[in-house]
Structure formats: structure tokens, C-alpha cells
Amino acid sequence: MADSSVSHRDKILVVDDDLVLSKALQTRLRRLGFDVAGPASTGDQAVALAISEEPDLVLMDVNLLEGSMDGPQAAAKIREHSEVPFVFLTGHSDDSTLARVKPIEPDAFLIKPLDLRSLHVTIILALDRHRARQQRAQADAARKTTERLHAAVLDTSHDGVVSVNAEGRIAVFNKGAERIFGYSAATLIDQRIELIIPEPLLARPPGRASTLPAAASHRIGDTREVEGLRSSGERFPAEVSISSLELEGQTISTLCIRDISDRRLLERQLAHSQKMEAVGRLASSVVHDFNNLLTAVQVNVYLLRKEVSPDLGAYVDEISASVERGAAMTRQLMGFTRSHPPQKRSIAVNDIVKQTENLLRRLLRVGVRFSVELGPDAGWVFADRNLIEQVLMNLVVNARDAMPHGGQLSLRTGRLELGASEAGALELPAGA
Known about the structure:
Layout: E1 11-15, H1 19-31, E2 35-40, H2 43-53, E3 57-61, H3 71-79, E4 86-90, H4 95-101, E5 108-111, H5 116-156, E6 160-164, E7 170-173, H6 175-181, H7 185-188, E8 202-203, E9 212-213, E10 224-229, E11 235-247, E12 250-259, H8 261-307, H9 313-337, E13 344-348, H10 349-362, E14 368-373, E15 380-384, H11 385-401, E16 407-412, H12 420-425
Helix pairs in contact: 2-3, 8-9, 9-11, 10-11
């Protein structure tokens, strides 16, 4: 009868050069509900059957007299292919026998002559221990896989992830944190969090010497802005969310840290852009009203010219020229505010420079000498006049700012033929 405690038919490989005992063992094992592989009477046969039959347990005599291998040697060969458990049979339990089989790490020894009940219990316990080892090995492999997965997730995160123990010392410092703060993980492990975030993030409860995370009062997803400190000494704005958990009786805080320097820069640029847009709208409104005034003045100049005597005509011409200069300035302001789409047409480069020269001089500070050299071959361009004037103003302002203590600023026009390398840099055809 098969024993009810055996959940499935485990296969036992019997290895013994005593054919009578081997036959008796096979009969007993089958009665106990096991399948039997073999038998094998030599070490070579045992190795071959262990590889081909894949038994769940090997029941082997320590002293195999036949063949080239004894029991421990055959067991060592089998272990090269399988982690199958071993139960050794021996007529002597002396120290030398134990020393011979110790490297195999057998699950049990049975002393001949064998007791049927002891044989059954020993085999069941050996199989149970082997399965427990397999389960632990699988659990350990799964744990290591999970740890590798967690490490991969942490190290591929763009944000910094820093875990801190109850004393405020860093236990985890991922690749994102290394990139943000400029420290290696090896440098900061076991260092205090204040080294990278000077602002207190941890609350010290009354009567406690250690610091505990202030995250207990934070909801998941809550963030706060703090000031981070890089290894270079640079301070930067950072956004931090904190979560806490109890691990082996100790509170661990995990900080998810995001460098928001770029965001703050974009916000400042947006605010500046919005301010400039408001200034542009105001300037556009002023330019529109000023143009109306200039139009009225120009109409009156036209009417006045018909009424005044020739000796006063020079004064009227001067008024008319001033109105034209005012109109030119309003066009430049319109180009600055970009309140109308570009109006492209063919214009002479030298004409634009001459008409803008006085305005450009007014942009300079004391100590900056300004000269204009107009090349006769400067030619014509197809462009918006206001935009060209704006380019000239930007060039002059940048040059002025580059000479805070004064200097010489020269504005030259001329024709330049670009070579292949210069044209390529500007994405233009060679010769342009």
C-alpha cells in the first residue's frame, strides 16, 4: 500500500553493489509508494541513470566496491548535473566515513541493517528539506530579480530618489540624485541629508534624540519647494515629495527630488516676454496716436508752404524734415513692437544705414566713437525695412554693451561672397 503522506510518486535511484539488498530496497520503496530508478551497482551506472532518469532522491551505498568510483565520488559527479538530494547507506558511522561524504552535503545517513520505518521517514524528510531549499532558492531568485528591477527603475529615473533613515542619514542615492547634486552614491551613503538639502525636511519629535520624517503629515503626491545644494556649492530650486514607511521597526523616508532650475528660468523668460508684450502693446498704441499727430502736422506744413513767403520757406522745409524723421522713428518702433506683418520690398542697404545713422548714434554712451563706412557695392536687399533697422539697432546696442569703458564702433557695408564652409554654416548656397 502506498503511504497517504506521499503527495505524488517520487522517483528514488537505488545505488548498491549488494544485489540482494538492492532488490529488497526496490521492493520496500515500491510498497511505500515510490517509483524506483535503476538499480545501479557501480558509480558509472549511477551517474548515467541520474542524468537520464532525473530522480527526486538518490539512495546510495557509501562503499561501492565495483567500478572505478565509490559512493562519494559518484555523488560528486552527479552533483555536477543536478542538485538531487542524497541519503547514504553505510555499515559504519565513523568520522572517516562522514569526512568522505561531507563535501556532498547529504541529507541523511542510514545505518545498515535498515529499519523500514526509519527508511520511510528519512526519505520523506530528505525530500521535504530538498523542496524547501528549492522554494527558498526560487524566492531568493525572485527577490534578487525584484531588487534588480527596483535598482533599474531607480537608476533610470530622471528625478533624484534619496532614502533617509530615522537619524536623517542617507541610505539610498540613485543615479538621478547623482546627476542632480554632483555627488556619487558611495560618497553620500550614511551622510546626513542636510549636506544636499540644508533646509530642514525632518521634524524632531519632543523627547527623541533622532530625527523622524515630517512626511507623516503629508498626503501622497504633496510636494514642497526647497533649496538644494550641489557638490560645487551652487544652490538651486528643487521640488520634493516625501513618503514614509516602517521597515524592520525603523522609519524610512524617501524623497523624490526634481531639479526645477530650468522651469524657473522658463517662468522668468515667460514673465519677461509677457512684460515686453505689454510694453509692445503700449508702444503700438502710442505710435498710432503719434502718427496721427504727425499726419496733422504734415498736412498743416503742406498748407503753410502755400501761404508763406519764400524767405520763410526754409523754416517750413525744416519742419517737414523733422516730421519725416519722426515718421521714420515711428516705423522703427512699429518694427520693434511687430504690430504688423513684414512688408518686404527691394531697398538699398546704404540708404537704410544713412537714414538710421542719427538714431544709432543716440543709442551710444559717452566714450564710444562711432563711424560709418558705406561700400559702393553694398547693393540691394529684398526685406522688411523695419526689420533691417531693428537688426542694425541690435548690433549697435550689443557692441555698445561690450565696451563699457568706451572704444571704437565701426559700421561698414559691402558685398561679401561666401565660401562653401561659411555658406554651409548659414545653410545658404555657396556664393550667396
